[in-house]
Fold this sequence. Notes:
Chain A is α/β, with parallel strands linked by helices. Helix content of chain A is about 40%, strand content about 15%.
Amino acid sequence: MLRFASRKSEYLPTHFYNIKADLPDLPKPPLNPRTKEALNPSDLEAIFSRGFIQQEIASEREVPIPDEVLEAYSIFRPTPLIYAAGLRKALDTPARIFYKYEGVGPVGSHKTNTAIMQAYLAAREGITTLTTETGAGQWGSALAYAGSKLGIQTKIFMVRSSYRQKPGRRILMEMFGGTVRESPSDTTDAGRRFFAQDPNHPGSLGIAISEAVELAVKSPGMKYSLGSVLDAVLMHQTVIGLEAEKQMAELGAEPDTIVGCVGGGSNFAGISFPFVRRNLRDGKAIRFITVEPESCPTLTRGELRYDCGDSVGMAPLLYMYTLGMDFVPPPIHAGGLRYHGMAPLVSHLVNKGIVEPKACSQEKVFDAARLFLKTEAILPAPESSHAIAAVVDEALAAKKEGKERVILFNLSGHGFLDISAFNGNGSK
Amino acid sequence: MLRFASRKSEYLPTHFYNIKADLPDLPKPPLNPRTKEALNPSDLEAIFSRGFIQQEIASEREVPIPDEVLEAYSIFRPTPLIYAAGLRKALDTPARIFYKYEGVGPVGSHKTNTAIMQAYLAAREGITTLTTETGAGQWGSALAYAGSKLGIQTKIFMVRSSYRQKPGRRILMEMFGGTVRESPSDTTDAGRRFFAQDPNHPGSLGIAISEAVELAVKSPGMKYSLGSVLDAVLMHQTVIGLEAEKQMAELGAEPDTIVGCVGGGSNFAGISFPFVRRNLRDGKAIRFITVEPESCPTLTRGELRYDCGDSVGMAPLLYMYTLGMDFVPPPIHAGGLRYHGMAPLVSHLVNKGIVEPKACSQEKVFDAARLFLKTEAILPAPESSHAIAAVVDEALAAKKEGKERVILFNLSGHGFLDISAFNGNGSK
C-alpha cells in the first residue's frame, strides 16, 4: 500500500462544505449578550467583517472558495494523507490507520485554513487591520501569516505568561510582520484594569480577547478575528475533510471511524463534517469520536446551555456544552485545548448522538505522542496527541475483536514549537 | 504545473550512489594522526563499526541499502519535491525553482538518512551503544531517533551552552530514549580537564567530540558515530538526489543549477552527487553551488591541505579545505555551519572546478529566510537559508538575462527548533 496519498492540486476543493444545509434541525441560535434576544447579524458588525458575518449565517450547502484563497492554500495544500504503517505495526492491529497531516502548513497547524479566508474577507472590504488574541501563539501566528499574504496588518494580544515563557511563536508572528503585545497591556481600557494592578500580571485568554475586541470596536478600519468555535470557522476547516475524502479514495480505503481532538472544535469539524454528511444523507454509520483532556472535559462533563463565548461577557451567548465561562484547567495541564466551551455545531452533533465524546488523561496522551514520534517519525502537537491516544484505543479494540477497521484521524499540527510541554515526559 | 511531486514508494532508491566510482582521480587519502602515514582501515576499528569502515572505503558505484534501512526510510521517505511557485512569483523570475524538502524527517533535517544506516551497521555487529557529540542537537537527535528504531542505545555529549540555552532538541533526544550529557562532563578524561577548571564551562564541539570518542574507545560494545564529512556519510545522503532525479522527471524538469548549503558538506553532497555524475559521465554542464556563511568561509577563503578532522587531533588527518582546527566563528554568527573543515569529496570537486563555492552574509541569509517563509510557507532552518539566499541570486540573475533556468536546491531542514536564531530579525 502507498504510504502517502499524492498531493495533486485537483484534490483541493473549490467549495467549503456547510453542514447546516444537511442537518435535519439546527442548533439553537446565538443570543445578544445584552438583550438575551436572538442575535441580529448586524449586531456583529462592530466586531467582525461583513463578509465573515455572511459566512457565519450562510445556509447553502457549498460556499465557494475564492480564487485568491485557493491560490494561498495551494502553497501548502493539499496536505498529505498518510498511512500509519509504523504505528499499525507497533500496535499489531488489524485496523488500518490513516491521518491527515495539517502540520505541513506554514505555522504547523490547521489554523491557517480559516485565517487566510478571514484575512481575504477583511481585505475585500477595505479593512486594514485584524486584531486577535492568542495564548501560546498558534492562532496568532496563523493570522499573522494570513495577513502577510493578503495585505492585512495584524495586532495580536498574547497572554503575558506565554509571551515570556515561549518566545518561539512570538518570533514567528513577528517574522510575518504581526505586531505582538503582551496582555494585559496598557493600550486598552480592559488591559489597563489589570495592568494598573500589576504590570507583570500573567494575563489570560479572556483578558486578551477583551483587549482585541475593544481595539477593533474602537478603531476605524479594524475588525476582530476568531480562530475556532463559530460556524464559519468550522466551515473553512472542511477543506481538510474534503481533501481527505478524495485521498482516501485514492488509497482505496473507506473510513469507519473518524477521530479528532477538540478545544474549540474546528479541527475535528474540519476532518469530520464532510463524512458526517455520509451518515446524514447516505445512511452510512461512520463513528465520530472527539477527544478532549480529562482536565478540560467540556463535552464529557460539561453542561449543554447558553454561555458566554468569552470570559468577560462581550461576545454573543452560544448554546453549547460548557464548563462555565470562569473555568480554568488545573496548572498541571500542559496539552492545550483549554477552552471552557465548545463549538455549537459540535455540541449539537454530540447532543444528537452522532458524535461520541471521549476524554483522555495527560499521561496517556503523552504516551501516545512518544509512540507516534517513534513509529511515525512526526512529533505531534500536544493537542493532536489527544486524537492519537484515542486512535490507539480503537486500534487495540479492533485487535481484541480481530476486526479489520479503517480509522482516519486529523493530525492537526506538529509539536516542534511546543516541545517544552514534553520536557520530563521523555525518558521512559 | 504540479506543486508537489508525489511520494510514491518506487522513488526510494535501493542503492546509495558512490561518486568515487565515477571520479577520474580520487581525493588524497586520510592520514593516521600519529604516524602521518596513509590510514589503514583497521586503524579506525577502535572508533567506528567495521560495517561503517567498509562503507567508507567502498569503491563500487552502487552500494545496496539494506531492507531494514529501506523500511525505516519509508516512514518519511521519499521526501517531497516541491515547485517553488510562491518564491518564483515574488521574484518575478523566468527561472523555475524546485526544492527537495528534507525537513519532513523525524528530527526536521536530512541527518536521519545517515543516522539510520549507521545505527543499522552497528546493530548488525552486536554493538549496543553509539556515542556522538552534538552542538544545538540536530545530529544528536537524528542518531537518537535512529537508535530508537534499530535497538541501539545512544549517548550524546551536548555542548553545555546549547544544552542550557536550547532545550528543545535535548527534549527530543530524550523522547527517543537517548542519554544526553552536558559537555564538558566529569565522566571522561577529556571532559574532566575542562570540567575541573569550571563546572559551568560552556563547552565546544571539539571537546564534545573528544568525550564521545574517548567513551567509545574505552567501552566494550560501544562505537562512535559521525554525522557529516566522511565519504560514507555523504554516500548515505545520496538518497536525496536519487529521489530528486526521479521526481524532477515526474515534474518534467531537468535542473541546470543545483544549490546546497555546506557545513561539513553532507546535505550538499546528498542532493548533488547523483547529478554530478551526469557531468562526469554524460557530458552535461550542470552548475553546482555550495553556500557557506561569510563568517565561516571554509571553501571560499580556506586552504586546501591536510588538517585534523576534530579540534583535538584524535581523528584522522583529512585533505580538505580548512580554516584551521582552532577556527571559531565570531559570536554574532547564528546560522550553524560552523565546522572548520569540509568533506574531502566536496573539497575535491571544488578544487577540480566542478563545484562553485559561494559565501553569504548573515543579513542576506535571514532576508532570504523571511522571504521563503512568506512565499513558500515553510520556516527554513538557518543553515538551509544559506542555500535559499544563493537561489534568490541565481533567480534574479536569470531575470536580468531573461533566461529560463531550472534551479534545484536542498531545503535540508526546517527552523522550528532553531527559531530563536531569528529573534530580533523578524519585524522588517
